[in-house]
């Protein structure tokens, strides 16, 4: 059994709403100009399910094709629950008032997902999952839930500046790389263990709070790993300003258990690194035992797409993707995406 070591990364999600026309299009129109008032009915199987009274010259108050909305009771809509509703209106040329009659579920939406996956690992296909409701909300993880997986250097001779000080919840203490001889060179690396697989989307870095800047990180990289062995390209990189304020690094959610903060340079040109607190924001993986809604065969390139054309109207849903090895085993879930 070979579990895929990489997880897909959904890089884009696009939703398209489609106004649904029923039998005979269910698009009715009248010319209101010669009439004092009128009415248009949406019908289904001969049932008058939704009716709108159209006031005289209503079209004169609306620009051509500008207004498309949902009628309310104040607009004169009534429904007997027959499965249809008058969903919108707009004026056309020559004073023609158009009424679009939609099935009771209103708008059908199709969602297209695009995700990335490395070209090299052996893989047979991807499976796409949809869970009803919102994706799990991201939040800062409790510091007590974090563990130090590894650190390249820490000063414990001239004081207690162990790596654990970076996750102890006390901003007055801090991790500092070794500053007694021999001094370890840059880069400096701190790896945190979150305790379980999470969707990770942010790292907060608080430098030392004692009024000094020695060791404050300037250039940095953030990486996420499932197993602390396979590390993809950094999920974020940049330069922190020369300040003692906490810095927040946000990125597209990645699936992982381990988070690596790498200090590539230091604000005053030294070769040491510190951190008063390193915090991680994430959300638990979706664990609902849902069946996949579709599959996509592995292509030669790194980009793949899938269109979900069965999205229930007006609903909130969460999508994720899993990679499947030739023997049928799946990777952990990709980053989640939500609509709306």
Report a brief summary of the structure:
This protein is mostly beta strands and 340 residues long.
Structure explained in plain terms:
The chain has strands spanning 9-19, 27-31, 37-44, 47-55, 78-79, 84-91, 96-103, 107-116, 125-132, 139-140, 147-151, 175-176, 188-206, 219-225, 236-239, 247-263, 274-275, 277-284, 294-297, 303-311, 317-324, 337-339. The strands form six sheets. Strands 10, 11, 13, 14, 15, 16 and 18 form a seven-stranded antiparallel β-sheet that branches. A four-stranded antiparallel β-sheet has the order 19-9-21-22, with no helix packed on it. The chain is built from no helices and 22 strands. The protein folds into three domains: 9-16 and 108-135 and 287-339, Sandwich (Immunoglobulin-like); 21-104, no CATH class; 139-284, Jelly Rolls (Sandwich), CATH 2.60.120.260.
User: Which CATH class of the largest domain is shown?
Assistant: Mainly Beta
Mass-distribution shape: elongated
Low-confidence stretches: 18-107
Elements, N to C (H/E) = EEEEEEEEEEEEEEEEEEEEEE
How many whole angstroms does the radius of gyration measure?
Answer: 29 Å
């Amino acid at each position: 059994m070979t579990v895929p070591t990489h997880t897909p990364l959904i890089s884009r999600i696009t939703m398209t709403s489609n106004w649904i026309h029923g039998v005979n299009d269910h698009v009715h129109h009248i010319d209101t100009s010669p009439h004092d008032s009128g009415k248009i009915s949406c019908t289904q199987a001969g049932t008058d399910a939704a009716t709108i009274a159209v006031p005289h010259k209503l079209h004169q108050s609306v620009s051509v094709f500008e207004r498309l909305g949902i009628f309310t009771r104040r607009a004169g809509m009534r429904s007997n629950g027959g499965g249809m509703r008058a969903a919108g209106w707009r004026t056309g040329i020559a004073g023609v008032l158009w009424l679009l009659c939609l099935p009771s579920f209103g708008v059908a939406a199709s969602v297209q997902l695009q995700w990335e996956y490395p070209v090299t690992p052996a893989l047979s296909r991807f499976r796409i999952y949809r869970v009803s409701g919102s994706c799990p909300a991201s939040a800062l993880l409790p510091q007590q839930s974090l563990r130090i997986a590894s650190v390249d250097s820490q000063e414990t001779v001239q004081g207690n500046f162990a790596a654990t000080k970076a996750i102890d919840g006390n901003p007055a203490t801090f991790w500092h790389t070794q500053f007694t001889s021999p001094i370890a060179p840059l880069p400096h690396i701190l790896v945190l263990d979150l305790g379980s697989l999470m969707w990770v989307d942010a790292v907060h870095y608080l430098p030392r709070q004692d009024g000094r800047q020695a060791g404050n990180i300037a250039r940095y990289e953030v990486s996420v790993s499932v197993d602390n062995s396979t590390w993809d390209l950094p999920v974020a990189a940049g330069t922190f300003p020369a300040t003692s304020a906490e810095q927040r690094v946000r990125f597209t959610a990645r699936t992982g258990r381990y988070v690596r903060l790498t200090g590539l340079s230091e604000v005053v040109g030294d070769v040491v690194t510190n951190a008063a607190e390193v915090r991680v924001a994430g959300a638990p993986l979706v664990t609902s035992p849902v069946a996949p809604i579709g599959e996509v065969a592995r292509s030669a390139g790194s980009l793949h797409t899938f269109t979900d054309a069965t999205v229930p109207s007006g609903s909130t849903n969460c999508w994720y993707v899993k990679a499947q090895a030739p023997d049928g085993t799946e990777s952990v879930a990709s980053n989640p995406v939500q609509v709306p």
